[in-house]
Write a structure and sequence with these properties.
CATH topology of the largest domain: Thrombin, subunit H
Number of domains: 3
CATH class of the largest domain: Mainly Beta
Strand content: 35-45%
Structural class: alpha+beta
Distance between the termini: 37 Å
Strand order of the largest sheet: 11-10-14-15-16-13-12-25
Helix content: 10-25%
Length: 419
């Protein structure tokens, strides 16, 4: 099935299939046959519902090779709770779904019955920074950790797998953890010449040689007054720093074209999100709820042509298998990113950042030095605007990490600005 008609039938199919899940027998049930009927945006809606019902679901993930989205249903959930959680999914594909007509339709939905709940897996993952011996290993032996919806396990990246770690994993997680060998990472410090109102993916600099990328426009409340500015990576600058829009040329010459904003809120450190807010209102600066897109033809000088800007329309939900675009001011936009892990805690240069989503690419680098803080988005064909998924943070081997937008905004007590 394809097209709007199939989507309108989705709630009916869900209500019928629900009867098959009232037992605790493990297995997979296909929801739709004959073709894809869900877009990436609708997959994000399903992911948001799964995350709001962690006791009933065990996670959501997509396989781009087959076009199948799988939702795991916990084997321990009661029949009544399971039915209520599945009912919450019925909004997707209904006449009230704001993404009903979004394209391309690339996913077919199926359900897998059995395995641990997200609530259990999340509670186990949360033990790592607070429980011996794991907390003493962070930054040295333990490099990253996250809940994997594919294996339905907590995946722990370590510098080497030892007998002591195997025993600790078994005693702490009881078979619900997997040890893998990880890699040390690098923070991505590093479009060029813009004017007010400044846009996301602008190059931002300070005269001490540091440069990053602007992410997306947001707002905060200061004594009841709304302040507008840009979200960027928390590792870029310290609180109180005034940041300019500009660039360093290939001869290290400093060029500034005005003040972007002042860092007035910042979260960066162990076991927290990597994010800060550049307050434009505090410096009398105007920012725009849009971002540049397309390639960056001249990373160390003004561009001869620009693509965009395109408007920010909302916050996307990150899930495994979803396609995203990295859009830093150095690399420019690369839309070949595919998410392979969400809400990871990863240690990079001695600091463990959490609420990080991870993506890989089949066609080269998604980001490099100077792209930190730049937006991660889904361009939707650049027709109706972009959904914001987060801001670029670091690279570890051939995997790129970015801070999840939902957690960034929560950490800043901020909202996404769309105008």
């Amino acid at each position: 099935m394809s097209g709007n008609g199939a989507l309108r039938k989705l709630p009916v199919i869900l209500s019928v299939i629900t009867l098959c899940w009232l037992s605790n027998q493990a297995g997979t049930v296909a929801l739709a046959n004959g073709g894809a009927n869900l877009s990436d945006q609708q997959g994000g809606e399903l992911q948001a519902t799964v995350l709001k019902n962690p006791d009933a679901f065990g996670g959501l993930w997509g396989d781009p090779a087959t076009g199948v989205l799988t939702i795991n249903i916990s084997g321990s959930v009661t029949s009544s709770r399971r039915a209520a959680a599945i009912q919450a999914l019925n909004f997707v594909g209904s006449s009230h779904d704001p993404f009903l007509v979004t394209k391309p339709k690339k996913w077919v939905l199926q359900f897998h019955n059995g395995g641990p709940s997200l609530a259990l897996l999340n509670s186990l993952a949360n033990k790592i920074p607070t429980t011996q011996p794991w907390d003493s290993y962070i930054g040295a032996t333990v490099l990253s950790w996250y809940v994997d919806p594919v294996s339905q396990r907590v995946v722990i990246g370590v510098s080497e797998i030892t007998d002591a770690l195997r025993q600790a994993a078994e005693s702490t997680f009881g078979g619900l953890a997997v040890l893998i060998v990880g890699h040390q990472g690098t923070l991505l410090y590093d479009r060029i010449h813009d004017g007010q109102a400044y846009s996301g993916s602008d190059r931002i600099v300070t005269s001490d040689g540091n440069y990053c990328s602007a992410g997306y426009k947001a707002y905060i409340s200061v004594s009841g007054v709304l302040h507008y500015g840009m979200i960027t990576a928390g590792h870029c600058w310290s609180n109180g720093t005034t940041v300019s829009q500009g660039y360093y040329d290939c001869n290290a010459g400093y060029h500034s074209f005005g003040t972007m904003g002042k860092v007035t809120r910042r979260v960066f450190g162990n076991n927290v999100t990597d994010v800060e807010f550049l307050d434009g209102t505090a410096t009398g600066t105007s920012t725009a709820a849009n971002m540049w897109y397309g390639s960056e033809p001249n990373p160390c000088g003004p561009e001869t042509s620009n693509s965009g800007p395109i408007n920010d329309t909302g916050v996307g939900s990150n899930y495994v298998g979803e396609s995203v675009c990295f859009d830093g001011s150095v690399t420019g936009e690369n839309c070949n990113g595919v998410i392979d892990a969400t809400l990871v805690c990863v240690t990079v240069q001695g600091t463990t950042s959490c609420n990080q989503d991870r993506a890989h690419s089949g066609n080269g680098s998604l980001a490099t030095g100077g792209d930190s803080g730049g937006p991660v988005e889904a361009n939707n064909g650049h027709g109706t605007g972009v959904l914001v998924f987060g801001t670029i943070s670091s690279v570890v081997g051939s995997e790129w990490y970015y801070s999840d937008a939902t957690y960034e905004l929560n950490a800043m007590s901020a909202g996404l600005a769309t105008s």
